[in-house]
Design a protein that fits this description.
Structural class: alpha/beta
Radius of gyration: 14 Å
Order of helices and strands: EEHEHHEHHEHEEEEH
Helix content: 25-40%
Number of strands: 9
Oligomer: single chain
Number of helices: 7
Strand order of the largest sheet: 5-4-3-8-9
Largest sheet: 5 strands, mixed
Strand content: 25-35%
Distance between the termini: 24 Å
Amino acid sequence: MTISVGDRLPEATFIRMGAEGPETVALEDKIKGRKVAIFAVPAAYSTTCQTAHMPSFIRSKDRFAEKGVDEIICIAVNDPFVMAEWGKATGADEAGITMLADADGSYTRAIGMEFDAPVVGLYGRSKRYAMLVEDGEVTVFQPELTRGCETSSGEALLSEM
C-alpha cells in the first residue's frame, strides 16, 4: 500500500554522517511537532537526481522557509557515505538540506514506494516523490508520474502548499 495524504509516516530509522561518523536518526525526532518537506530520489548522482531534482529544492529552500517549513529532507536508498558526498557535491549541505540514507530500503518499502530498474542496475530503490509532513501526518503527497521531476520538484511541492 502506498502512503497517501492523511496517513501518518511509519516509524523509521535512517543513517547520516555526523561529526564522529555514521549515526542513526529516528524519523520521529525529525517530524514530531514540525512541518517538514521530504523528497526521495532513486539514486544519488544519477542524472535527473543530480541535475534537476536536488537543484529544485536548493533553489526553493528560502520559499519553503517562508511557508513555515522547518526542514527539508532528502532520502535515498544509498549508504550514508554516498549521501554525505552527494550533499557536498550538489551544495545540498551548504543549503541546509538534510541527507538521510535509507540504506536497507525498509522505510521506502514501508511507504510503498520501492521499485527495481534492472536495465540500469537499480534494485530496491525509491520512486521519486515529494511530500509535506505536518507533525507526522502527510498533508501533501506528490509521487512522480514521469521520468523527470515535474510533480515532485521543489517548485511543484510549493505550488500545492
